[in-house]
Amino acid sequence: MGSIPVLWFLSACVFTAKAVLLAVLCRLATAIPTEVVLPPIVGKKASLNFFSCFIGESGGGKGTSTGLAEELFDFKQTKLKYIQSTPGSGEGVLSTYLKATNSGWEQKFESALINFDEIDNLKAGSERNGSTLSATLRQGFIGEVIGGTYSKT
What we know:
Layout: H1 6-11, H2 17-31, H3 62-72, E1 82-85, H4 90-97, E2 98-101, E3 104-107, E4 111-114, H5 119-127, H6 133-141
Parallel strand pairs: 1-4
Antiparallel strand pairs: 2-3
Helix pairs in contact: 2-3, 4-6
């Protein structure tokens, strides 16, 4: 499938071509090395994080679009150390990238494709008492440091 041009493939699909293209762009953005940044035209350098949202009725092809994008852009063809994740909290976003060790933190992945198949999951995680999920996702989007320091007592 990798040798078939994406736009030709999309023109032959019954599915929403725009949704498939957007899902491919999400995967492509995840594959861009983290060292690649936007220049500091206003303020500081900015990361190339990418957010998108597919809106449609149940059974409208949102999940199928992301599945087709996975076939069109297979991460196994890259040398990227990545993960696909659906975190349930701000702390879950942090643990997508890092793991705690006896000496501090160790990076597990450079890039993550964070996906909420159902908006209800994102909404429920964001509305929990004391949730940091929405704030953490926004911080990650604009390239800010995510996570916080908490007392052990």
